[in-house]
Amino acid sequence: MQEKGTISIHTENIFPIIKKFLYSDNEIFLRELVSNAVDATQKIKRLATLGQYTGELGDTTVEVSFDKDKKTITISDRGLGMTAEEIKKYINQIAFSGATEFVEKFKDAKDANEIIGKFGLGFYSAFMVAHTVEINSLSYQEGSEPAKWTCDGSTSFEISEGNRTERGTDIILHINEESEEFLDKWKLQGILDKYCKFLPVTIKFGTKSESVEDGVDEEGKKKWKSVEVDNIINTTSPIWTKSPSDLKDEDYLSFYKELYPMSEDPLFWIHLNVDYPFNLTGVLYFPKVKNDFDFQKNKIKLYSRQVFITDEVKDIVPEFLMLLHGVIDSPDIPLNVSRSFLQADGNVKKINNYITKKVADKLSELYKKDRKVYEEKWNDIGLFVKYGMISEEKFAEKGKDFVLLKNTKGEFYTLPEYKEKVQGIQTDKNEQTIYLYATDVNKQDGFIQSANKKDYDVLVMDSPIDSHFIQHLEGKEEKTQLKRVDADVAEKLIQKDDAFANLLSEEQSTKVKEIFEKAIDNKSYSVEIEGLNPEELPVTVTMDEFMRRMKDMAATGGGMGFYGSLPDNYKVAINGNHSVIDKILKAESEEEQTKLAKQSFDLALLAQGLLTGKDLTEFVKRSVNMI
Q: pTM here?
């Protein structure tokens, strides 16, 4: 048997297109060929189950091997195999999928779709790394003869009699010069680990050394010896393919360590399992995020029938859940011919919505089941919840029932609870309820204490997302405004009708303002004389709430870049009712007035962490001299 011919294609120069455009990364040739071998193996198993194949299945392990001297990589299976006619049909006619005929033949068989693979373009990824490809195959059909197909990367092929004696297929790649990097054990091992780690058929790649017990020595201690065993690449039944009722916490934690060996244990997880209106399985883990946005370290991995596709899942998973880790597996997510890029599709949006709902339901369940445990985990999960409420309206609707606010005393409140707590005392003369917050409890301690003296409560808003979450709260909570605790003096943060009057005369106020403007000598600081509680500090430096918030949002990429580039401007509030101001006015000389004003101003800067460098050094020297 010998035949030569031309591969039937619908586009000229198909191979350059495959090499340059259809595949984003040449290493996926191995994924495609191993996946095809697994598909063929699953099909023969299915035929045996249906009684369509009565022979012995035998060992169905798919084997990957390479020969550095001959410059070949071989993928062998004991699957369906192909006759010469089938090779011509499935391999030569690129546009035809062998799965179509198989589906039609066994369309009434239960779960047949789950084992359908596609012949065709996936196979041709072999030419990304090989100058010549051989197929040696023997069909499972009784009386079949082995067939050999050879192609050198042009549109010409040759079919001749093969030499395979067992059912199945060998794909032999003769590696081209540019791709000899793949003739390396560790390179191939890495690719197989990446793409084939959870394929449903056993994959073997050579052997590896293992230590086994070898009796005991004279002292009764165990002895060990090294033996060569098959190097099995994959776990054929990963936990996402199992029922949650069959799994324990240790199984989920063990799988997490397998995926992310260097990570801390996750907080909790969600097992996804849906078969209508789309098929989706997987496990998503909530990691400890350490209050930052580490999107790159450990990504969610996307699989299709246990074949790794990508860890770029932004179309499938809502953006705020990109912080999660784990696995999603769905045959219903549409991929282009290289299986590497997601395509726009209605199912993708449905899956996105489903995952959002499952996460919201899980968080709600945890909150209701044990609020104390939920509060203990809030520092880790708060970032997810707040980010989700900002970015997803549907999640925000559910999230309002389990989002928590934490104050500087370490107490937690739901939104309704906190509203009730502060609505009376922290409502200003315009009937606006004011929520005070701190972004750095230690740095803003003086301002927090001032607020606490007036029985005001202060929230902790110190995560990277909080500047945006504050905007969200103000948009959702009626007649509510949030102000940073150091945005103004306590009396001005929540203005009441019974505010303190300024005891200085107009002339005295003008004089004090002139003294401080001369002492400060910086146009970035605007001086105002105010009537405040005599027990408050004589001088307070603050930044306007709006300007500070815009700068905070600009710092976290909130689209406020214009504000981020503006110079810092501060308000200097002089407490006209403080005894220090009276002392400044009564100072014997202008020089003494300026020195006292400068000292008071520097103390205010110090309280805000704004006194640095040369100014701090001079302040220390001046303080020593004044003692």
A: 0.72
CB-CB contact of 524 with 571 (8 Å): no
User: Which pair of tokens denotes residue 376?
Assistant: 């203990």
- Condensed to tens digits (0 to 9), the pLDDT of residues 514-541 reads 999 998 888 888 888 988 888 888 988 8
Which of 40-49, 293-302, 589-598 has the least mean pLDDT? Answer: 293-302
Architecture of domain 404-493: 3-Layer(aba) Sandwich (3.40)
How far out from the chain centre does Cα 537 lie?
Answer: 46
Does residue 74 carry a pLDDT above 50? yes
Alpha-carbon gap, residue 340 to 333, rounded angstroms: 11
Query: Concatenated DSSP letters for 243-293?
Result: -GGG--HHHHHHHHHHH-TTSPPPSEEEEEEE-SSS-EEEEEEE---TTS-
Q: How far is CA 114 from the centre of its chain?
A: 28
Alpha helices in 440-558, H assignment, sequence order: 445-453, 466-476, 490-493, 506-520, 545-555
Supply the CATH classification number for the domain 506-626: 1.20.120.790
Return d(Cα 413, Cα 406) in angstroms, integer.
6
98-134 confidence digits (pLDDT tens): 444 444 554 454 433 333 333 345 788 888 899 999 9
- Tell me, which fold does domain 2-206 have in CATH? Heat Shock Protein 90 (3.30.565)
pLDDT at residue 294 tops 70: no
Domain ranges, ordered by start, for the chain: 2-206, 239-371, 404-493, 506-626
Pairwise CA distance, residues 89 & 165, whole Å: 22
| Phi then psi dihedrals of residue 494, to 5 deg | -125, 95
